[in-house]
Design a protein that fits this description.
Layout: H1 2-13, H2 22-58, E1 61-62, E2 70-71, H3 75-79, H4 84-115, H5 122-135, H6 139-148, H7 154-160, H8 176-186, H9 189-200, H10 204-212, H11 217-245, H12 249-254, H13 268-278, H14 282-307
Antiparallel strand pairs: 1-2
Amino acid sequence: MTALNELRTMRRKRGEPKIAAVSDLRKSDQRAALAFLAPWFLGLFGITLIPLVASLALSTTDYDLLTSPTFIGLDNFTAMLTDTRLHESLRVTFLYVVTGVPLQLVVALGLAVLLNRGLRGMTFYRSVFYLPSLLGSSVAIAILWRQVFGEEGLFNAFLGLFGIQGMGWVSHPDTALWTLVLLHVWTFGSPMIIFLAGLRQIPEMYYEAASLDGASPWRQFRSVTLPLLSPIVFFNLVMQVIIAFQAFTQAFVVSNGTGGPSDSTLFYTLYLYQEGFTNLRMGYAAAMAWVLVLIVLVLTAINFWASKFWVFYED
């Protein structure tokens, strides 16, 4: 700073322009940084935080979107204890998550291991396998899925080749949910790409050492690949559980918004939508949304707690 002051004094004596102080330059940089961050802050407050607080406030009211909200305290939350449809939606959603997420991760990991062997046309296969993840939650794919597993759909046509009589898989209470589970498994592209990136980071020397010790490919996968890939497995598990609890489009389109047949595809998010926008019980729907947040928060915390028993972090 002393040298800078001396240089400014010399330049003033010579009639040269002043050198801006370091503090002035820092303030200018800070203003520029704030200007660039302004859109993000607007989105954070306008799209996330303010609606979040508003929904919390609405969860304590009786609100039908047409009249002013009426404060009722915790009545919306206590009403959930006797709501049998809500309990059924929780059962359906948990069954969907518990079966769909592990199956999806197994398929994603298996394909990632195959692609990691250095196949020709890797970029092509990677793009093809990732495509379902981009389309899986779209309305078009849900409509296509309903047609494929309909009574006269492609799946029954395939079974007919072997003399097997098919049925309406999406319209039968015993099979409708499993078609949605299959759709979730089909969208394995995103976790597969993450698994593939993790596999590329495992040093080859570990496999060479295991081979010298006589380990079979399955033994190498179990003792080398899985432990070193466990942080990636944990990340995919947490993310896919959160995503699965938010599933909505598939059940809405396949069941025409009813959650049928016999509420077999009544996801929690679908029931929340029905309560808020069909039955105009927006206060109750807001309370349901906060219960969903708590469920996901608790399950995520449990996953983090359990991870210390099976996730291996290499020093």
